[in-house]
Amino acid sequence: MSDQKAPVTTASEDKALLETIFDHIPVMLCHWKGNRILRVNRAFECRLGWSLEETQALGVDGLLKACAPTEEARQEVTNFVHHASGEWGEQRTRRKDGRIIDTAWANLRLADGSTVGIGRDISEQKFVEEQLRSQNEQLHAFSARLHSAREEESARIAREIHDEFGCMLTTLRWDLVTCEALAVKLGQLQDTGQLQTKIEGMVKLVDGAFTALRRIVSELRPSVLDHLGLADAIEWQTRQFQERSGITCQWESSVERLNLNSEQSTAVFRISQEALTNILRHAGATRVEVSLAEEDSAVVLKIRDNGRGITNQEKQAENSLGLGGMLQRARMAGGTVDISGAVNEGTVVTVRVPLQRVDGQSA
């Protein structure tokens, strides 16, 4: 077995290697001690424009003053530089040519008391982030307008269905009842009983049409909101859910009057509707608790069931249970939806929407 030893480098070779790495690494490096700048690398000179000689003439304090766009920024950067922690921080930095760029820096304190500042130009990254943020805001605004247009169209259709078909069905039912009375009164037909049975059947069909009409109108536009307000509308919705599903429901409300606009009230009502529908379809629950309260200048709706619970996979696949629509409605109303639960321990849906002041702004 050979007893070869690794080649030994001299101190001068090690220094030359470190200087080569320091100079060619593609991030900005600045090495200083006290107020004296010892070295900056090529990336520093290229991105900020100051040569090593110029930075050494300025010193740390002078360089910070030259790089800071404002006095407030200079103070923040000075505190950051003189309290090296190794944590990254973002700053707006002025180049020698006056152009402002976005940078991120981390300062490392060395054993000899000197400090190495490591910096990256993140201007392009910040630009992309801003573009994405702006596009997301535009998409959210477009989605809000689309939902609003849908609600307005649903309200219009609901009014037309109610006015037109309701009027026709009412007239038809009245005519059928009149025909039934005339048939009995005349008594001239050989099979009056059969005719009466047919008319009674048609009256039942018309009554069924009325029931279907009310259901369709309610689904298109919750008119109960306009007549009762949000709290009473959700209470009514909860009672209807209990009658339809057979699931025991407990309702509790500590609010009397809520300063919510029409869009917010509709959003909360629709989220409640969707949550109850999900319970009926997926939860296997036997009991549901619905509560409405005012907390910290916000209306808070909680819907808790004792069903099978929601899994993390179901929460992440938001569209699978209609959760995406609930989150989107809450976002458009300026609020949030939190969905929590555990397997076999039920699910809790918490909706929080900020109340409105008299001037229309959030409270």
CATH topology of the largest domain: Heat Shock Protein 90
Count of all domains: 3
Q: Structural class of the helices, strands and pairings?
A: alpha+beta
The best one-word shape is elongated
Sum this structure up briefly.
This protein is of the alpha+beta class. It has eleven helices and ten strands.
Protein model, in words:
With 363 residues, this protein is α+β, with helices and mostly antiparallel strands. The protein folds into 3 domains: 15-121, PAS domain (Beta-Lactamase); 127-220; 228-354, 2-Layer Sandwich (Heat Shock Protein 90). It has 11 helices and 10 strands. The strands form 2 sheets. The protein has a 5-stranded antiparallel sheet, sandwiched between helices. β6 (248-253), α9 and β7 form a beta-alpha-beta unit. The radius of gyration is 36 Å and the shape is elongated. The relative contact order is 0.06.
SSE layout and pairing:
Blueprint: H1 11-24, E1 28-33, E2 36-40, H2 42-48, H3 52-67, H4 71-81, E3 89-94, E4 100-109, E5 115-121, H5 123-186, H6 192-220, H7 223-228, H8 230-245, E6 248-253, H9 262-283, E7 287-295, E8 298-305, H10 312-316, H11 323-332, E9 336-341, E10 347-354
Parallel strand pairs: 6-7
Antiparallel strand pairs: 1-2, 1-5, 3-4, 4-5, 7-8, 8-10, 9-10
Features:
363 residues, alpha+beta, Beta-Lactamase, Heat Shock Protein 90, 3 domains, 5-stranded antiparallel β-sheet, 5-stranded mixed β-sheet, 10 strands, 55% helix, elongated
